[in-house]
Structure to design on (431 residues):
């Protein structure tokens, strides 16, 4: 018995304790077969001596559970009871068992409530002198079990699983009729509501970029310069042509008083002088256009100045964008597959990658009715949303990326969950 107490104190898990009570107590009690049962809502068989696996639905095991359930309802449910398995004719499987003499050893909590028990069998009748030993073993097993699980042993379910599961499923089905807004997610970018695209006014080669990305610029400031060597030479030639034409015109004007031939050529010289002046003005205008300037105040938005320097460009090619920092908005690209009914004024929440824990509230200000091709080859609708709280924009920079949550019309939870599968069924099978 001392060895049994020592072994029970070293048990670390509940499963190990159940196995120990079913098998290792044989050295103290001397039984032939033992059954360990536990009470949750009803009594259930946990272990059978000398076997590792057993069938709870076997006739002998089911009648063992029924026998213990009947004993727990009697007046002596908390005491060690000696009995015979053939006492009840209705338990036919037990009446045919080879070991008919049994002892029921309830394992009780400190309050005296039986939470488990040990049913041991023997071919000989149990004597009165064995009862104190049986009670001592039951107390030791109950104490070890209580030390492992504590108050969890007396915890009961209010309803059995066969009742809880249908109720849970019914509640989930009923909750599906709850109305909630249909929401979708789409990538978003901080852009300017008032912006000017800086494009190339003439064909040429980029000589230099005079600003850095996200640099504040003012109206009239030079942003970039085109290669102007050829245009400067053309302007110098045009100025010389003006000088030559002016000299010839002056010569003919002086000679026209005495020479009729000079008088006849005077109009031609005047026309040539006017043409030379026009060519000079054109050369000056073309040379002036090599300096690309901005017409508004704002922030220069572009990628890499080194990638632009030295690159040949054509007329109308976009170099950068000047955005006014006082009028920011979100440009949202909604994929075609996520398209829902959205209207101007719909609620939008934006989670920027730089601060995902602080969503920014916005309202939808512009929608598009036609999807356009994106750089990755996909199609998406371009939407715009304006912030509701302007002070929040002070910490938002142009070009920041994030994710926008768009709120659409209210639908049932069932529709929100099964919208995608139903759409796939419609498009695939037409049902």
């Amino acid at each position: 018995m001392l060895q049994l107490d020592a072994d029970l104190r070293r048990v670390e898990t509940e499963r190990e304790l159940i196995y120990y009570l079913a098998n290792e107590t044989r050295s103290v009690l001397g039984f032939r077969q033992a059954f360990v049962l536990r009470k949750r809502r009803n009594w259930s068989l946990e272990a059978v001596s000398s076997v590792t696996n057993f069938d709870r639905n076997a006739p002998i095991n089911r009648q063992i559970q029924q026998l213990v359930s009947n004993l727990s309802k009697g007046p002596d449910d908390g005491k060690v009871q000696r009995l015979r398995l053939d006492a009840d004719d209705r338990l036919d499987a037990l009446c045919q068992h080879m070991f008919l003499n049994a002892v029921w050893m309830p394992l009780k909590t400190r309050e005296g409530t039986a939470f488990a028990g040990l049913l041991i069998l023997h071919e000989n009748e149990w004597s009165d002198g064995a009862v104190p030993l049986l009670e001592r073993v039951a107390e030791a097993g109950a104490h070890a079990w209580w030390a492992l699980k504590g108050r969890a042993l007396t915890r009961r379910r209010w309803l059995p699983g066969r009742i809880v599961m249908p109720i849970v499923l019914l509640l989930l089905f009923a909750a599906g009729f709850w109305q909630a807004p249909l929401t979708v997610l789409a990538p978003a970018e901080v852009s300017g509501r008032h912006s000017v695209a800086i494009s190339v006014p003439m064909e040429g080669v980029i000589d230099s970029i005079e600003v850095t990305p996200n640099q504040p610029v003012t109206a009239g400031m030079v942003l970039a310069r085109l290669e102007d060597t050829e245009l400067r030479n053309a302007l110098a030639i045009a100025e010389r042509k003006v000088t030559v034409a002016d000299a010839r015109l002056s010569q003919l004007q002086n000679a026209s008083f005495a020479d009729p031939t000079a008088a006849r050529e005077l109009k031609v010289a005047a026309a040539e002088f006017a043409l030379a002046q026009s060519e000079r003005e054109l050369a000056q205008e073309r040379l002036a256009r090599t300096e690309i300037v901005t017409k508004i105040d704002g922030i220069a938005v572009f990628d890499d100045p080194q990638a632009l320097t030295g690159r040949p460009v054509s007329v109308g090619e976009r170099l950068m964008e000047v955005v006014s920092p006082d009028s920011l908005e979100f440009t949202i690209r909604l994929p075609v597959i996520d398209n829902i009914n959205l209207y101007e004024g719909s609620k939008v929440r934006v989670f920027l990658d730089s601060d995902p824990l602080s969503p920014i509230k916005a309202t939808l200000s512009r929608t598009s009715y036609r999807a356009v091709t994106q750089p990755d080859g996909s199609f998406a609708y371009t939407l715009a949303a304006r912030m509701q709280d302007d002070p929040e924009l002070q910490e938002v920079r142009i070009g920041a990326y994030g994710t926008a949550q768009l709120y659409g019309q209210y639908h049932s939870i069932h529709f929100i969950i099964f919208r995608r599968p139903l759409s796939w069924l419609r498009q695939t099978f037409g049902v």
